[in-house]
């Protein structure tokens, strides 16, 4: 029994994996049919994650759930849960080139949505700063200023990669998805954005 | 290339050598027993005495005492010779990518060997068992462990351990058994070589030294996991081979083959495990101890390198005392120690440690290779066609078997399996080196009557693999088009990787799964909470993002300095932050002094790049932590504020940012303008960067500057209110040519405009500005400029 998402080639889980995920879903939701944001507080280790809020948000993001161009859902059911999980499926070597490209794009889109919190299709400097601040928030010695400058520097870099030479009057609004793809062009996201357990049936659930 | 080496020998040395050789006894026996040496010494003394013109009692005006200095003298000459060869080697840019440096060292060794052989000179007793294991081997291992890139290593740890450990075992036993079977064939005349001896030979011949090919890999920029496999194998292989070697020697000493019972074999296996793990355990303990001690050495930083080296060496010795694996101990010590020591020691100590380590290991290896060359050209060979050929064949076959089977298995567990191409490369990089040779050379002759044959076979294998495989592996990598790495140092990449890590850890938490990311996460937390507090001097957690950023910044700063954009005096002391009249072009000394100041005052930045080259260190432009920069700048800023001047010049310009901002494409020709460099402040926005505004000549400059002063002090104050400006720098230089020069240079670098919003500065200031504060400075300038020229581009626009 496989769960296939009509939109993309990504989402073929094996029945074992679906079962595992279902068990976990039930745990998180407290045997309810849906999960809300508060349910994520049950995951203790997540507390220490600096980008916790973004991760949780990603689960409810309508764009990730393919339910709409923006906004947050209030609750998600198991199908949605699986949809989110499908973004982390490792790329199968048996897939052909086109599928690999599609997968890659999907994963990058997920990332893009994480950065672009206001759903306007661009990562602005503010959003970027936000991300950097969160990433560095675990580190009490780094001041906000440093985080800002780093974000700014990164944005500069991105601008130079994406747009290259610009007219003096041009203004760089923010990173669009195409630019984002360009930045990641050389880097193998396929090798980085996956969760191991989705590949193996043997690891037991640890609560 | 070799001619220049010969020329480098001063005529005097050469003469001395020849005279000494001529008068010494000829001996071709490479058994360096003391007695023969002494005898030889005595002989030559007598000869010298006889050779002097006056028999007996006169005081000789000129006498020669070569034997007194012989050993150190020749050793020094060898090392120098190898160094000169290396210089020559690197002068031809293409060579290092074509063949491993080991080739070169072997050639030099053969050369020295042929000289020594040709002149019938007895070479000094450089290598015997204790010297090798106590002095020559540890530096090589230490260097390997210290420069290991930890993160990729631990990410691939399972695969590496599986491959290195089992691979060594399979190879050793496989080759041993196969050769034993060959020896059984009466026709080859090898029947006196029993199983144990074959096994021992197998274990020593399977000691691979692929570090030699790592340099070639780096040129070809192969992908990270492949690189780490080879590296990890190099690291662990030595340890495992030596352990196996020792165990088998112990077995051999149990005189009769029939005495060996299964119990002994089991004991051997158990010993293998204990030796390995025990070594690692001791290494880690010593690593922690030395890290702890370096916490207190801030006042006597001169002994920091000493502590590092002595503790590593101590770990090796202690492990050896307990018959544990010293090699694994010293490796573990280096790996553990590095992280904490790097943060504790001063910059100069860090550099010293790095370079000294490279130097020591380089010397050791050179000596071993030269020794190998020396023993090649000599009379103590026993050539047995069957043995040698079959050894070669079996080495390749068994390596292929072990690579393909082990990786087939480990690929099942890896998310990203190694392709067949990768595996071929791994197979082909099985280059033997100094390790095998040493072990073969040190076989006790009493137990191994056919030692010479073993040595010959080893030498053949080494020569074959180093030369043929070493030289062809580069083209092979390129031909197979192995997946390349695309590491580039960019902040974006660093950010994204970091985000990815956390994202993955988060998702895994949500799914309730354990994976090695979680392990790593947990370890990091443990590390931060406990270990760092104990072991690190001033517990400032470093973030790699920040480090990378600062490092890139510094790099840019230095580059800009070199390009003459910053004036030299500005850099040196704050109080000299006066208006600079007629600054001259930066001289190299100025750049040097600037660099020196930078390095002297900053902490270092942890480097995350992968590349490892056994023979040289990466050139570092300057790597320092900008915490210091921050503090300095703030101080100078405050000072200059107090003095009523405008921004201090003495700061590195907004490095990165300068690159990324455009400037009006005003024609440089018409430009007789001041160049101004806005700095990247905390909000980093506007970067003015480059010579966007150019102003006119001196007469104007005066008034302009005043205006600037007033207008700039405002932003300055606001900056102060807003928080500590991160990077700050400013610069003026009235001199004409320099402007035009800079303008031209800057004109070559158009950058995209960056669009920034900065609420912090929106308050007050120039409300009619449309730009953020730093930008506001710019627009004021611009407005001024516009009054004078029709120049363009408000650099920034608010969103």
UniProtKB/TrEMBL annotation, chain A:
Domain of life of the organism encoding this protein: Eukaryota
Protein name, UniProt field: Calcineurin B homologous protein 3
Organism expressing this protein natively: Orycteropus afer afer
Name of the gene encoding the protein in the UniProt record: TESC
Automatic annotation (TrEMBL), chain B:
Domain Sodium/hydrogen exchanger regulatory region: 569-675
Residues spanning the membrane: 98-119, 131-148, 160-183, 195-217, 229-251, 272-293, 313-335, 355-377, 383-409, 425-447, 453-477
Molecular-function GO terms, alphabetical: potassium:proton antiporter activity; sodium:proton antiporter activity
Claim: Transmembrane helix is one of the keywords in the record: yes
Protein name: Sodium/hydrogen exchanger
Similarity comment text for this entry: Belongs to the monovalent cation:proton antiporter 1 (CPA1) transporter (TC 2.A.36) family.
Membrane-topology annotation of the record: Multi-pass membrane protein
Cited PANTHER family: SODIUM/HYDROGEN EXCHANGER (PTHR10110), SODIUM_HYDROGEN EXCHANGER 4 (PTHR10110:SF103)
Localization annotation: Apical cell membrane
GO cellular component: apical plasma membrane
Keyword annotations of the record: Antiport, Cell membrane, Ion transport, Membrane, Signal, Sodium, Sodium transport, Transmembrane, Transmembrane helix, Transport
Domain Cation/H+ exchanger transmembrane: residue ranges: 79-478
BP GO terms, sorted: regulation of intracellular pH; sodium ion import across plasma membrane
InterPro entries, per the entry: Cation/H_exchanger_CPA1, Cation/H_exchanger_TM, NaH_exchanger, NHE-2/4, NHE_CaM-bd
Region (Disordered): 718-743, 758-799
Extent of Acidic residues compositional bias: 759-771
Keyword Nucleus: no
Signal peptide: 1-26
